[in-house]
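step=encode ok
step=design start
structure_in=
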């Protein structure tokens, strides 16, 4: 990388590097940088342990205590013992009316095949006044691609970030790019639930 930082809505963030999952080659380098910044600075509470992550991603890279729902992935041997995962479908979990002060989902909803319904389920899991962060690569789910192409409506703040040379740049207008072998464009969406 010729430059070790990128901009996200005017914030200059360092790329996230980790040996696991080749973050220096894929979209995780920006998604995780944004997620860690968001958890440190944007939460409605100063306790990041009291939230929900849909899709077991953050625990692969740093210790975490928050609740995680992931239908298929269990906390594995390489994770710390206190990092349990609830193996349940996110829609079933959301149907219980449990809400959290923050909800985060990093490159997970594109695997549900449910597009906008998955976004709505994440919103349903966010308590009034709570915050949500969701990222997804473009080029995987047609419904999410249509949302990105339409400017990502319904979020308080949303953008796409695309590969550019040996780095990533926030796009002036939303971009939908082909996927493969990793993401070339990632949508990043923030939302605050109404009080």
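sequence_out=
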């Amino acid at each position: 990388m010729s430059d070790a930082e990128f901009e996200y809505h005017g914030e200059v963030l360092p790329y996230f590097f980790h040996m696991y999952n080749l973050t220096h080659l894929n979209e995780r380098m920006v998604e995780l940088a944004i997620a860690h910044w968001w958890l440190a600075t944007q939460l409605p509470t100063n306790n990041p342990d009291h939230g929900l992550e849909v899709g077991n991603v953050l625990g692969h890279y740093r210790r975490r205590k928050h609740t995680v729902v992931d239908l298929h992935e269990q906390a594995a041997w390489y994770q710390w013992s206190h990092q349990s995962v609830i193996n349940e479908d996110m829609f079933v979990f959301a149907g219980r009316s449990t809400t959290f002060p923050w909800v985060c989902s990093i490159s997970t909803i594109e695997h549900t095949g449910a597009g906008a319904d998955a976004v709505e389920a994440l919103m349903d899991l966010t308590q009034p006044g709570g915050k949500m962060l969701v990222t997804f690569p473009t080029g995987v789910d047609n419904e999410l691609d249509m949302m990105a192409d339409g400017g990502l409506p319904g979020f308080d703040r949303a953008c796409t970030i695309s590969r550019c040379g040996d780095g990533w740049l926030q796009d002036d207008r939303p971009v939908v790019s082909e996927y493969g072998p990793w993401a070339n464009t990632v949508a990043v969406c923030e939302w605050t639930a109404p009080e």
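step=design ok
step=annotate ok -> The chain has one domain: 5-192.
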